[in-house]
């Protein structure tokens, strides 16, 4: 089959690789019909994520049709149209039972590596995202092996197009959980979203669905800001104006009631990849790349929430903790518990509350993937979100 | 509020496991200091921000530890020793099964090698005695180490303890406790091992880095045991999955 393969820092290519096979009786094989490039894939391209190996198949946002199931698979059937959350969860361990799917105890075979890096804890396995997270082959390919098939596969029975349901695998739930974590008081709370990449865009619309009185978006890329404006958000271009002053004035000196940092450390977030990279170049920061988080804390209103869907990986210093303490802020963060959100958000799509395809700017054949990785990274050509067809 | 103030409270750390670090010999200390300074220098000179952060941080840490005389590697790897120079290894895991069930599996010693990969075999000799054989650590001749152990406690559903008999190659003792986890979370399994390593602290450190030291094995074994129980035997794996590595020359 054809697959997008990591060939080394700044090198991805389309290669012909062996078709996946069932490795465990709980696996399924899915023929992929649509697959996307996520902002966090860019950090694999950039070589920021340790433990990638040459030949690893990329991709963690994809969907398709079940073509084979293992003997222990009980719910999933061949021929079913399915979507799969980007994180893998066993469904039976204590975190899974509590709905904390991204904290699954059992899905990462390389738990030891993750424990060594993050302490006595292990992240769940992820599709196509380095050996630290299990080293599972990803779905920027024609077929994929799906572990824990009964937990991973969500059947899509309606006539919704791939474009409309594909992002339930990652960026829509990620933006939604970021907004949900704010515990927005409908009609009263103002929410600021740092980073208007794909996750930021979904955070904006989710905050609105949850009743935010107003949403303010901070970015520097005109297309992204326009897309947020189209949803009814106010925008701040931080290249043109002082963010903290602008937020202060826009909220009558209170600050936004909640702030979503959809950027992350080293712009490692799901989504607006280059926002922070650019900011740190501009600000001549070396390794202390928490500009968005710092702004979030400094701007947030008293008693507010700093919600962090953007990924943080290591040690952070020079964080304005005194400001956070004195304002009594709440911090909520973590990988998305995607499984939890698939059905409720699917329902919102079916009811016409949102059409997630609004974020797509580029469609192409899988073979054009490597070029589009670059287009997406450089934000050329108005690129916000790329969807690839593995069979075109 | 102290741990002991609540009714029915219990000390969490037994007195002989209080030590949390191992001290370094002079040569070890010098070497660590040199490594620290080297890493600091490399960190400051490095062009990459990430390397700068990691190297400088590590370097500063090592240098500070060398000055303090604690063994940083041993401390970082959580190797602990008690006052008698015995190495202490312990770990715990919560498993979503009942204590009686887990106790029963553990109590059948002859089945343990299928759960604990470093165990070659366990032969039950009589009511209280058994013979344990493990793969030897790196650099240890013979490939295997074995000893006879005597059960010193057997409380069904709660606790099993054992002690090696006097002429054991590696003098060791241990216990496993089973305790209901609060809420409906199954059982907390706590394993404590105590042993006298053949090569002293540095030997333990070297073996641990090579992945053949009991603490690492214990962690792996406990996680394997948990997954065996919770996943019905289907351990997560990626072995044999498709990748670009098997397709050299297969460039499209
Ligand atoms: Zn993603
Ligand atoms: Zn789980």
From TrEMBL, chain A:
Location of the Alcohol dehydrogenase-like N-terminal domain: 25-150
Domain Alcohol dehydrogenase-like C-terminal as annotated: residue spans: 198-265
InterPro entries in the record: ADH-like_C (IPR013149), ADH-like_N (IPR013154), ADH_Zn_CS (IPR002328), GroES-like_sf (IPR011032), NAD(P)-bd_dom_sf (IPR036291)
A Pfam family this chain is assigned to: ADH_N
Stored SUPFAM superfamilies: GroES-like, NAD(P)-binding Rossmann-fold domains
One term of GO molecular function: oxidoreductase activity
Keywords: Metal-binding, Oxidoreductase, Zinc
CDD domains recorded: FDH_like_1
Cofactor: Zn(2+)
Family: Belongs to the zinc-containing alcohol dehydrogenase family.
Annotated PANTHER family: DEHYDROGENASE, ZINC-CONTAINING, PUTATIVE (AFU_ORTHOLOGUE AFUA_2G02810)-RELATED, ZINC-TYPE ALCOHOL DEHYDROGENASE-LIKE
Name of this chain's protein: Threonine dehydrogenase-like Zn-dependent dehydrogenase
Taxonomic lineage: Bacteria, Thermotogati, Deinococcota, Deinococci, Deinococcales
UniProtKB/TrEMBL annotation, chain B:
Pfam families recorded: Polyketide_cyc
Alphabetized SUPFAM superfamilies for the sequence: Bet v1-like
Ranges of residues in domain Coenzyme Q-binding protein COQ10 START: 99-222
Classification via InterPro entries: COQ10_START, ORF3, START-like_dom_sf
Residue stretches of biased makeup (Gly residues): 1-10
Classification lineage: Bacteria, Thermotogati, Deinococcota, Deinococci, Deinococcales
Name assigned to this protein: Putative membrane protein
Chain intervals for the UniProt region annotation (Disordered): 1-23, 224-252
CDD domains membership: SRPBCC_8
Domain of life of the organism encoding this protein: Bacteria
